[in-house]
Amino acid sequence: MLNILKKKIKQYTKLLIRIDDVAENMNWKHMDKCEKLFDKCNIKPLMGVIPLNQDKELFKLPKNKNFWSRVQDWQNKGWEITMHGCNHLYTQKSNKQDLFNYGGDSEFYGLDYNKQFEKIKIGLEKFKNENISIRSFFAPNHIYDDNTLKALKNSQIKIIIDGYGLFPFYKHEILFIPQLFYKEICLPFGIQSTQIHLNNWNDNYYDKFQIFIEKQKIKITDLDFILNINSPNKIQNLINYLVEKTLKSIRFFK
Ligand SMILES: [Zn+2]
What we know:
Low-confidence stretches: none
Distance between the termini: 42 Å
Strand order of the largest sheet: 10-1-11
Helix content: 40-55%
Bound molecules: zinc ion
Largest sheet: 3 strands, parallel
Number of strands: 11
Order of helices and strands: HEEHEHHEEEHHEEEEHEHH
Strand content: 5-15%
Number of helices: 9
Radius of gyration: 18 Å
Oligomer: single chain
């Protein structure tokens, strides 16, 4: 019995590697190093690509003129290309009324449905013109409202890489793959995603990341593995509920 349980826990302890802020202008030095590392360890990460970046902070970083052919290469080797917003501009304030009560600035929150739908449409058209297929999304700064979810659903995007929980869960007919920590952490149980901001890295941080990846590589999975798992059972739903309540109350008192 204990062995079966141990086997089950192992089967359901997985980490998805989500790379944030992938754009023409980025920290290509460490992106190149990560690509070699992922290939060596046979890891297929999820690349959060900004389709039409207008974020001035990112413009300070080196530009890759062949960006879209690079994205196509990633897709061809089985990496998941995820839509990360449209322009990555924080024009909206959420005041903790957003879906996960994070409360930061947003590209989408508070805009009416048509405006949000239009942003997603423009972003998806850019991907289509570059021959990139998209089935998942995560918003800049983790900020969503009901209209964001509705606009995504009506654009045939039903997977979001964000949210609280130990396991992927369904909410409003969308599959959420939880993303819990800012740092690279692998919990002893559950299926979650990282958020990796390699644009801010120095060599020292890369070295630590390499050690983390080599240590955890057996647990690292890809989006298809998660999609093939059946929807969470009642116990998992209960655990997700408790984690969400706990994390929300911690944020509330911070
Ligand atoms: Zn971002």
